[in-house]
Amino acid sequence: MSKVLIATRRTEELMPFLELNGFVVEQIGDNICKVTRDNELPVFVSVYDNNMYFEVDLGNISGFASKEIYFKLLDMNTEILPVSFGINNSNPDDPHLVLVESRITVDLSDQELLAVFDALELATDKAEAILAEFVQE
Predict the structure, then answer these.
(1) Contact 73, 65 (CB under 8 A)
(2) By CB neighbour count within 10 A (0-12 exposed, 13-18 middle, 19+ buried), where does 105 fall?
(3) CATH fold of 14-135, please?
């Protein structure tokens, strides 16, 4: 008989789904969890209404911030889609470079969710390469 592939669809809660897929999940607030895998930077996931927000904190950038680095990061945004660089300025005295992404939780597929984490990991690697140029100077 020919090989026949069957696509299945089932629903699963977020935290158990991530754990089944090799992530370590830690609830750190009512709607916020910290998700890690292997030796990657943690991804902070928050859920509000029908939206899920993802953020990777790449650290304080004020010590070496310049027009050149901002230009390179902004230019890199076109290469790291669907995620993007941003500045978390919730503490104005301690601005952090972050990677961000968001998804609507209605009809969110497993492949779509896992692809966000893969994209964040790839973007983190690219960010580290850019930041290394400026930290060494």
Answers:
(1) no
(2) middle
(3) Yope Regulator; Chain: A, (3.30.1460)
The DSSP-derived string for 41-103 is: PPEEEEEETTEEEEEEEEEE-TTT--HHHHHHHHHHTTTSTT-EEEEE-SSTTS-EEEEEEEE
Domain boundaries, the chain: 14-135
- Largest Cα–Cα separation, the chain: 66
Q: How much is the pTM?
A: 0.89
Look at strands 51-60 and 84-88 and give their pairing: unpaired
Note the pLDDT tens digit of each residue in 112-132.
Answer: 999 999 999 999 999 999 999
* 97, β-bridge pairs: 59, 87
Q: Concatenated DSSP letters for 4-22? A: ----------HHHHHHHTT
